[in-house]
Design goal:
With 425 residues, the protein is mainly beta. Helices cover 6% and strands 52% of the residues. The strands form two sheets. The chain has a 25-stranded mixed β-sheet that branches. A three-stranded mixed β-sheet has the order 7-8-11, with no helix packed on it. Strand 7 (98-101) and strand 8 form a beta hairpin. The chain binds 2-acetamido-2-deoxy-beta-D-glucopyranose (NAG) (7 copies). One 2-acetamido-2-deoxy-beta-D-glucopyranose is lined by residues 216, 238-239, 267-270. InterPro entries: Glyco_hydro_28, Pectin_lyas_fold, Pectin_lyase_fold/virulence.
Length: 425
């Protein structure tokens, strides 16, 4: 601790927006020379994370073990990167991560909790996930949900927290999760999982690098996101309510997901009041990232329990309602809108009872690689009412007629064909 003092300065200063009237300031610089920064980072947050301000000077902070920041009336100015050591076997030991995200028992190496805080990384800091080590490690190994690959940034039990202008370089697994939280704003987030190992050129070697998973959280605002990944740009999971996302760019991957829902038979999943607007989906060079699959897709497990979470499950109820997806621009993706309720299922399963209703798709433009534009396969156990399309002007490939598929959809409006009908097919 005596050595720490030369790197952490503590002073009394005037108020900032979220800090108290008189508060401490801690200032850190990376130790460098292959030394471990975890102690000095933890010490600074312990000293200034409550009613204070912590300033990280630029550079790479060597983080070698799991870390929690408990921030209360606090500002963190992160001008550098928390660089999580690229030691796959170490992090896969369950003792070395947290398991605070209930769904699929996912692991976290860095958890932020607390209330009334701002983390501002000024577009020049954030997290360095050293993902390439992970993606190459798993290049010839199988992966599964809940296997211990850590989420890069986890917000857990947060109230009134803001994360701003924050970069995550090469997330090994999910880039962000917000769970058991409310009144959270993310403004200016960057995540980039791009393989550079020539051994895997042209393959999606970066699955599960989702931009964010929202879970058991209310009033979450996602503004100005730029996500490059090999999976879901956003994954809106169970009990995500009042989620507003605006000005997103999704580069490669699967698109924006709602789900999978209904994995836990005893825990209904609710998604209510979801607004997605000004979304750009961009296909990348296929040698770098071959996938750009969907615009918005919504999925549930079937009504039958098939195995147990984290990898199996199903049978869960709940509903998804009041979804608005507007001002989408698509660049050569496979399928703009997809609903299906057969995730993880087998033929002969009970139909899901989780119902989708009140969904609007407004002002969609751009191009796709196949002629199917909309595929709504709702469950026979819970047909989808009130699905509206307005100014849905997506172009199929030249010379091909657009196709729309609707199963168990009640009263879809605004697109031609079998979808534009009242009542059940
Ligand atoms: C981080 O610290 C560990 C432990 O001191 C050291 O072995 C490792 O080389 C450091 N890494 C970097 C990038 O400095
Ligand atoms: C985790 O820690 C416990 C308690 O210290 C220990 O018994 C166990 O062997 C550790 N597990 C692994 C995989 O290292
Ligand atoms: C996996 O790939 C690495 C690097 O190419 C190689 O060294 C290793 O032997 C491979 N392992 C298996 C099980 O194929
Ligand atoms: C993502 O990272 C790759 C590899 O470093 C880089 O080529 C690409 O420009 C980055 N994407 C964005 C949007 O910054
Ligand atoms: C979602 O919220 C409902 C109602 O509060 C609750 O019954 C259910 O267990 C929650 N589901 C999950 C996955 O937390
Ligand atoms: C769907 O919208 C209708 C009409 O606005 C409303 O009455 C109904 O409560 C909504 N359904 C849900 C599940 O919110
Ligand atoms: C829906 O069907 C009705 C009745 O056939 C037709 O008048 C209307 O133009 C159709 N709307 C669209 C957007 O295709």
């Amino acid at each position: 601790m005596t050595t720490m003092r030369s790197f952490v300065t503590v002073a009394l200063v005037a108020a900032s927006a979220v800090a108290a009237a008189t508060s401490r300031i801690c200032t850190l610089r990376p130790l460098g020379h292959g030394r471990d920064d975890t102690d000095q980072v933890e010490a600074a947050i312990a000293r200034c994370g409550r009613f204070g301000k912590t300033i990280f000077k630029p550079g790479q902070y060597n983080i070698t073990r799991k870390m929690t920041w408990d921030l209360v009336h606090s500002t963190v100015d992160l001008h550098g990167y928390l660089n999580f050591k690229p030691d796959v076997e170490y992090w896969l030991n369950p003792n070395n991560t947290y398991r605070v995200v209930f769904i699929q028992n996912q692991a976290s190496w860095f958890v932020v909790t607390g209330h009334d805080f701002l983390i501002d990384a000024h577009n020049r800091g954030g997290i360095n996930g050293n993902g390439q080590t992970w993606w190459s490690y798993y290049g010839n190994r199988s992966r599964s949900d809940g296997d211990g690959r850590p989420i890069a940034l986890t917000l857990s039990h947060v109230n009134r927290g803001t994360v701003r202008n924050f970069r995550v370089e090469s997330q090994p697994f999910w880039c962000n999760t917000v769970a058991d939280s409310k009144n959270v704003v993310y403004d200016g987030m960057y995540c980039n999982a791009t393989n550079q190992d020539p051994l895997y050129a042209g393959q999606n070697i970066v699955p599960n690098t989702d931009g964010i998973c929202t879970y058991r959280s209310d009033k979450v605002t996602l503004l100005n996101w730029d996500i490059t990944c090999g999976d879901d740009c956003l994954a809106i999971k169970g009990n995500s309510t009042n989620i507003h996302a605006k000005h997103l760019t999704c580069r490669g991957g699967n698109g924006i997901a709602v789900g999978s829902l209904g994995q836990y038979a005893d825990q209904p999943d609710i998604v209510d009041n979801l607004v997605l607007e000004h979304v750009k989906m961009v296909r990348l060079d296929p040698k770098v990232q071959p996938n750009m699959k969907k615009g918005l897709y919504l999925k549930t497990w079937t009504g039958t329990v098939n195995g147990e979470p984290p990898t199996g499950g199903g049978g869960g109820g709940g509903y998804v309602s009041n979804v608005v997806a507007k001002d989408f621009h698509l660049d050569r993706l496979n399928l703009p809108v997809h609903v299906y309720q057969t995730n993880g299922g087998h033929s002969g399963d009970q139909p899901s009872k989780l119902q989708f209703s009140n969904m609007s798709f407004i002002n969609w433009r751009g191009s796709v690689t196949a002629n199917r534009l909309v595929d709504l396969e709702c469950s026979a156990g819970a047909p989808c009412p009130n699905i509206l399309f307005k100014n849905f002007d997506v172009s199929p490939p030249p010379g091909q007629a657009p196709s729309f598929v609707c199963m168990n959809v009640v009263n879809a409006r605004g697109i031609p064909g079998p979808c534009n009908a009242t009542g059940l097919p």
